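Hi R.,

Here's the chain you asked about this morning:
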Amino acid sequence: MFTMAHVKDDRETARLFKLAADQGDASAQNSLGIFYARGRGGLAQDDREAARLFKLAAEQGNAFGQNSLGIFYATGRGGLPQDDREAAHHFKLSAYKGNAFGQHSLGIFYATGRGGLSKDDREAARLFKLAANQGNADGQVSLGVMYQYGRGGLSKEDGEAARLFKLAADQGDASAQVSLGNLAQTQIDDLYAADQPVVPKKWWARWLLRWLDDRFHESCHKRGIHLGFRTPI
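And the predicted structure, written out as tokens:
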């Protein structure tokens, strides 16, 4: 199985992926396909070549390749027809192998009732939880949304939603950062309900606002802006 060890240069990475992919390594075929799909490593952006490589990987039973191919069917990319049923088929193959990306993709299809699947929030939540427990940021965000709105048989728990959003946000996930910000906004009125700012009563709201405050100061520091105050929490 092809692996990368501390290779930081995209062009060198693409070259090594291609060497391994040309030898039939399924993992490298999927990785090279992603590079073509994104136009990375000095490669021209080429969805058709990406789809070809995803197919090669998927045909060897590679769970990442199956998920990637499923995404291309779901979106009709790479010259493939837009086919939700075919996408669901590949997501299932990937998810049943325990792949976190496949679990999340299949969960989205259950949550939305796509690909011939009956809309099933409980199954979606189960799959999101499996993905989240593997550290998958998309799974963490989607499971957080389920807790935020009390879907999929889960109780409505803003604190658990905030915890999951933070796990994903700490990985750099932009949607998680937005979700955290939106969740924090619901607490802002508490801070200004009196003449002086008040401390939110909920523990998760306190550390959420502290986390957002820290990110704000980090951003300012990177831009050479130094502030001498902090949120009084």
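The chain has three domains: 7-82, 98-155, 157-233.

Let me know if you need anything else.
M.
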